[in-house]
Amino acid sequence: MDRPHLVPVLWCSVPRRGCLASMAPAPRRSEPAMSDLQSISDLLTTPGNLGRIVAATRGRVIDVSQLRRDVYANAECLRASGCKRGLLITEDTYWAIVGMLALFQMGAEVVLPQNATVGAITSIQEHWDVLVCDRLPAGQVGGIILQSAGEGSGELQPLDATKCYLNLFTSGSTGIPKRVRKTLAVMEREAEAIELIAGGNVEATARILGTVTHQHLFGLSYKLFWPLCSGRIVDGTVHELWESLLAQDLRGSVVITSPAHLLRLGPVNPLPAGRQPSRILSAGAVLPLLASAAASTVFGSAICEIYGSTETGTIARRERHRVDLPWQVAPGVAVEIADDGTMWVTSPFLSETTHHRCDDLAERDINGGFHLRGRTDRVVKIDGARVSLAAVEAGIAASPWVANVALVVLPGDVPALGAAVVPSEAGRLKLLEVGSFRFSRLLRQGLQDLQEAPGRPRRWRFVEALPVNDLGKTVQRDLLALFDVRRPTEPEIRAVRATSDGIELDLFTSPDLQQLEGHFPGMPIVPGVAQIDWAVKLAARHLELPVGVAMSYQVKFHRLTLPGTLLTLKLDLDAERQRLNFAYRRDDVVLTSGIIRTCAP
Known about the structure:
By secondary structure, the chain is an alpha/beta fold.
């Protein structure tokens, strides 16, 4: 593809470890200098240093000697299977290392799916021949389960890093998984750049922990290859919950995480100085400034955001302390921006080309670096995950209940997908039978094996026809109008039932409620004052509550009320005593209850 007129942003050469990256206007591409990080081949074959700790997993400490034994034993098992392209799916990062190096050792390629769902595995079935795992994924039968070796071991052979291939997959604009082929040499080069970005104040034997999986490039590069090449310790556990990670001794460690996780950090007391990690690295989406500041307070250090893609690897980084702080290009990378905002990257972390056109639009900053200005394709970031709108639409359209569908990204602090669906004739009958809420749940369940949670729409609209312009194309503005993207101030009423003393209302507390703003960042909770206000307004609306010039109330909060849940509000009006009794519950659990006294005019 010919490149248009480009404006260079920055070129950073990769000096030897310990030196600062030099920055100058982009010259012709040259190979960066090699640092003194250890190659994977040397790790497996160089005599000595057998006692170096490489990983900690499941209560075990793994040294180089044990790693070599595990790699050799599993390589022999894979060789006997005739594997040529191993589909590697592991929950534990240490076993990802063993499986990967065992496949390289016996001359096979590594294939990493986007996730372990049946749909993701099936969609790339022509790219692999043997499943390699630490435990069988749901829906899979047969495969080689990685095992710990005994004391005996043969001799491992040196690896040619330029001929060891990893195959990753990312969402193409068509919804069909796009293969990205990288070599071990490329991953080692990126590890050198990561050392320059993040290794400065990190102890040589620090532990690298994370909330992100190694199945994606960010976790693979930062949580697996960087510590393996730099001599640091890989923590095998993928800490999906903060409770698990914060229970660890984080002193001097590095935490590899994502905005999706940092936004869920919640109200946590700052870690004492003796338990603080040395670095926090985040990638996957842009981290909101308030969330960044809150996390920095908890961990005692600034959050280093990483920007990149599966195709390019690391492109840029920043430690943001203001909204408009630009991204700074990573060591070894050149970024150029065309007049139309298209961004081109020249990088040593690209395997099959010298330059790459990104799907993000960018704007050059006059003081250096660049700002991101949206995307050019139909792959969007939802909750830190890349989601192909085309793939989700295809998954929904596959249902016999659906005649047509269009997706829209609903704006907000936490963007979500909305689906506008035209039901088929069978779908209309089903919709009449079960109602819109259950119908949407059934369609969402149909995506369970095809999409992870961010790729399943949270809001649904069922319409006679999709809004189109005079050219027959769907209009984004009109699609958004179907969802009334103005943030609501009250819960959505799903049902109203009369009782002997009042009414019961089924309510849905939308995650977009205005009252959730700042209450609390990362862990939104429905404020008590909002619950009281809703009780009064709904009683006035449905029970003709005489709201007067004075009001008092007594309230007890039994449990936290979270957004995105279905609640039942029971309202009992005692008109003679000018008293309203109310209770919010989820299923049979009372969340909030109280008494509101009114003074009629």
